[in-house]
Amino acid sequence: MATQPVDEKLKRSAEHAKEAAEQTQEAAENTQEAAEHTQAAAKTTAVASVQMKDSADRRTELAANRTVFAAERTYAAWVRTGLAALASGIGAKKLLEGVVPDWMILSTGSVLILFSAFCFAAAVWRQIFTGSQPPHPDVERLPPFLLVLFNGFLALVSLAALFGLWFGQTGGV
Questions:
Q1: Cβ pair 126, 95 in contact under 8 A
Q2: Are 112 and 92 in contact (CB under 8 A)?
């Protein structure tokens, strides 16, 4: 009879061992599934990382394009300001005639015309020497020799207008 409680204990231990083995098997299956999910998530993350890098590169290129266009708008603003100053300097002679003394007409016109020449030079300077270069834009920059050519011509026109203001006829003909 003493063996009966030992047999029951062995039976219960065997049942517990069987339950523990089933639980261990279930945990192993869950771990396998989790590993598969982790591996799939890692692949998805790697693909997303490559796509994100490509997207970041594209955003950088687009930003570089916007920088080039902003520089061109700034160039156009310098030229527009120079042309307005040139026209104002030339018009000052007729507009101020008979209103203020001749020396004031000449000095006002001269300052405006000299400012126009400065604007034409500054336009080229700011367009060519931009500081740090943007990273490889898709758009082409304006050729520097064209800027120098056209703005050099405009600066010569300014100097001719200054010469005409100083040595041309005053008093209207």
A1: no
A2: yes
* pLDDT at residue 36 in the model: 80
Report the C-alpha gap between 171 and 173 in whole angstroms.
7
Shortest CA distance to 121 belongs to which of 161, 144, 154?
A: 154
pLDDT tens column, 16-35: 778 877 888 888 888 888 87
Burial profile 126-144: b = 16 or more Cβ within 10 angstroms, e = fewer: ebeeeeeebeebeeeeeee
Q: What is the mean pLDDT of residues 113-132?
A: 87
**DSSP per position, the chain:** -THHHHHHHHHHHHHHHHHHHHHHHHHHHHHHHHHHHHHHHHHHHHHHHHHHHHHHHHHHHHHHHHHHHHHHHHHHHHHHHHHHHHHHHHHHHHHHTTTS-HHHHHHHHHHHHHHHHHHHHHHHHHHH--SSPPS--SSPPPPHHHHHHHHHHHHHHHHHHHHHHHHS--S--
Residue 155: the pLDDT is 92
Q: What is the dihedral of CA 111, 117, 122, 127, to 10 degrees?
A: 150
| Contact by Cβ (8 Å): 105, 88 | no
Smallest Cα–Cα separation from 122: which of 157, 92, 80? 80
